[in-house]
Amino acid sequence: MPRVQNQLHFPSINTNETKHPSSTTLPAKFKMLALYTRHTTRNTHFPTLSHTLTTTSPPPPDSSNVIATLAPNTSPKTIPQTLLAHPVQWTPDLVNKTLKLLWNHGPKALQFFSALHRHPTYTHPTSSFDHAVDIVARMRDYKTLWTLVAQMRARRLGPTRKTFAIITERFVAAGKPDRAVKIFLSMHQHGCQPDLNSFNTLLDVLCKSKRAEMAYRLFKISRGRFRADTVSYNIIANGYCLIKRTPKALEIMKEMVERGLEPSLTTYNIMLKGFFRAGQIKEAWEFFLEMKRRECEIDVVTYTTVVHGFGVAGEVKKARKVFDEMVGAGVLPSVATYTALIQVLCKKDSVENAELVFEEMVRKGYAPNSTTYTVLIRGFCHAEKMDRAIEYLERMEDDECEPNVQMYNVVIRYYCDAGEIEKGLEMFDKMGSGHCLPNLDTYNILVNAMFVRKKSDDLLVAGKLLLEMVERGFLPRKFIFNRVLNGLLLTGNQDFAKEILRLQSKCGRLPRQFRL
């Protein structure tokens, strides 16, 4: 094996040549975006952290403050200096928490990982390497990915089956399922032997990306290598249900029984949900009644599926009736059940009734999760009651339920759709200064919103957002690049357009190579 260097160098993305307009040239309402013009330089090699990073004298700084500082206030190239200025006793849990926080800022997360790579007392565990692998794979920097895998093997930290599950999932998400299968089949070359669980994981990834046929072919040709279990068949059946091929899913169930495997309650729940998803409401109800006749041990997941299925089909009264029947049958609703009912009421009835169910849920001692809040807030947004949506967003924070990126994206999208772009930008600003960094969808929502008013100032903001997307390791579509470019040209911002064109032509769509 070739010698692997101990020090990782993650040069940050090169946008240094891009000299876009200063925030002082923008109207006051757009000055908040000045803090979104952080640039980094390529091929920056960081010094190894010295012993000063180790906490040697009390009291140590609050680690949460250091993490909060890393998220909005530093550029990737200054992370080593930031860590030196804020010595912390790093632990695997704390490092993993920081990597998760920085996940939507890939370059910064990788520089943080690199800066701790030769810490005198801290050593990255397998879990931190897995986070780094996930980030570089999401950025499609495959060269760095395999270098990290080699580092793991050199340090005898892996790669593990979980590492390969992450890699194959990212390749499938990037539209490379054949490559994902080849990687799975080559796991043994990296010192990791696949087992039935890792095989089922690959099948699940393929099925959830709506490639059930491909998964089933792999399933059949691998019978001699892996002895399929009930979980394997459930995954394939669910894959066909996801593409609304319930007859094929029933065939898979039949094959399972013929091979001596007993369908589980999960199997029946998968089929039940498949019928509802395919719009086969009558078949779904008959299947549910058959489960009762056969005295299947119907659980909260079964009832939640029926409640949600009837609700989405517009049969709200029947959904509520099943919900009440569930309680009468001695099956306690879960947070997911209440969330499903709230969602269907928002979509098919009224947000006011959904709110009543939400308050009933709270009175009964249930703690709403981020998904519960998201569906209710989306309901208020859809009803054009943005003030109420913001009230629940604040209530969510008071309940110590952290808003997630999906939640912010919902609010930002509806503000922009309502023409209140400045409020959308304020929400975006709030994300950047807190514990929830914007993702690719956030940028796409805002960039597209900048074209609604056809103002020159808005197009400058779109350009700044595009640059930040690149800076944070996201892959803008060619359509987005070209739309911003054309918009800047049409509104007289030729200089800025030339810089973006130079970035696009120099790097394809995105400069994302990190050298180790």
From TrEMBL:
<keyword id="KW-0677">Repeat</keyword>
<feature type="region of interest" description="Disordered">
    <location>
        <begin position="1"/>
        <end position="24"/>
    </location>
</feature>
<feature type="repeat" description="PPR">
    <location>
        <begin position="299"/>
        <end position="333"/>
    </location>
</feature>
<feature type="repeat" description="PPR">
    <location>
        <begin position="369"/>
        <end position="403"/>
    </location>
</feature>
<dbReference type="Pfam" id="PF13041">
    <property type="entry name" value="PPR_2"/>
</dbReference>
<dbReference type="GO" id="GO:0031930">
    <property type="term" value="P:mitochondria-nucleus signaling pathway"/>
</dbReference>
<dbReference type="InterPro" id="IPR002885">
    <property type="entry name" value="PPR_rpt"/>
</dbReference>
<dbReference type="GO" id="GO:0009507">
    <property type="term" value="C:chloroplast"/>
</dbReference>
<feature type="repeat" description="PPR">
    <location>
        <begin position="404"/>
        <end position="438"/>
    </location>
</feature>
<feature type="repeat" description="PPR">
    <location>
        <begin position="229"/>
        <end position="263"/>
    </location>
</feature>
<feature type="repeat" description="PPR">
    <location>
        <begin position="160"/>
        <end position="194"/>
    </location>
</feature>
<dbReference type="GO" id="GO:0010019">
    <property type="term" value="P:chloroplast-nucleus signaling pathway"/>
</dbReference>
<dbReference type="Pfam" id="PF01535">
    <property type="entry name" value="PPR"/>
</dbReference>
<feature type="repeat" description="PPR">
    <location>
        <begin position="264"/>
        <end position="298"/>
    </location>
</feature>
<feature type="repeat" description="PPR">
    <location>
        <begin position="334"/>
        <end position="368"/>
    </location>
</feature>
<dbReference type="InterPro" id="IPR011990">
    <property type="entry name" value="TPR-like_helical_dom_sf"/>
</dbReference>
<protein>
    <recommendedName>
        <fullName>Pentatricopeptide repeat-containing protein</fullName>
    </recommendedName>
</protein>
<comment type="similarity">
    <text>Belongs to the PPR family. P subfamily.</text>
</comment>
